[in-house]
Amino acid sequence: MRIFGNPARIAQGARGGHVAVSGLSGYAQRKGWRGIFALGFLFVMAATGYGVVFVLIDKWFKGGTLGIL
User: Fold this and answer.
1) Rounded to 5 degrees, what are φ and ψ at 27?
2) Where do the DSSP E strands lie in the chain?
């Protein structure tokens, strides 16, 4: 079967819908920032979770002897 149409569109369909554009470094930079923010968020959430657990253990089992909260 022969397809008549825009060659760029046909090539785009063959590549799975990705179009090569200039400015790829901008995309990579945004992707890098996204990774940094994701790791930062995970670090903050882990620190918060460990802090909450530490305070609860201090309050419940030791009677608040460490003077936290």
Assistant:
1) -65, -45
2) none
Place of tokens 């825009």: 6
**Tens of pLDDT, residues 19-48:** 555 556 777 777 888 999 999 999 999 999
Question: Amino acid identity, residue 49?
Answer: G
20 backbone dihedrals φ, ψ, rounded to 5°: -75, 120
Return d(Cα 10, Cα 4) in angstroms, integer: 9
For residues 15 and 2, what is the distance between their CA atoms, to the nearest angstrom?
A: 18
pTM of the model: 0.49
Alpha carbons 9 and 15: distance in angstroms, whole number: 10
**Both structure tokens of 24:** 């790829």
Spatial contact of 59 and 69, defined as CB atoms under 8 Å apart: yes
